[in-house]
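Re: that chain you flagged

S.,

Sorry for the slow reply, it's been a week of failed gels. I finally had a moment to sit down with the sequence you sent. For the record, here it is as I used it:
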Amino acid sequence: MLDQRKQVATEVEELLEQHPLAKVLISMPGLGIRTSARLLLEIGDISAFATPGHLAAYAGLAPVTAAPAPPSRANTRPKAATRH
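Prediction finished late last night. Pasting the C-alpha cells below so you have them in one place:
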C-alpha cells in the first residue's frame, strides 16, 4: 500500500509539472504539490473565470455585502385617518 501511494504521488507530481501554472502555484506560500494539484483539479479551466474576483467568488473567498432589510411595518402604529 505504501509503495502504491508513493507511485501515485510521483505521478501527480509529474502531471503537475506539465501544467503551465504549476510553478506559480507552488511558489505561493503555503501551497505545495498536493494543494496545487488539488486547486487545479477543483478549478479546472481557469480561463472560465473572467476576473480574479470571479474565481474568488466561486471559491467562496470574496466578501459579500448584504443589503439591509427594509423596515418592518408590523411594529408601527397606523396613521390617523384624515377627517373631512
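What I noticed first: The helical segments are 2-17, 22-27, 33-43, 52-58.

Talk soon,
D.
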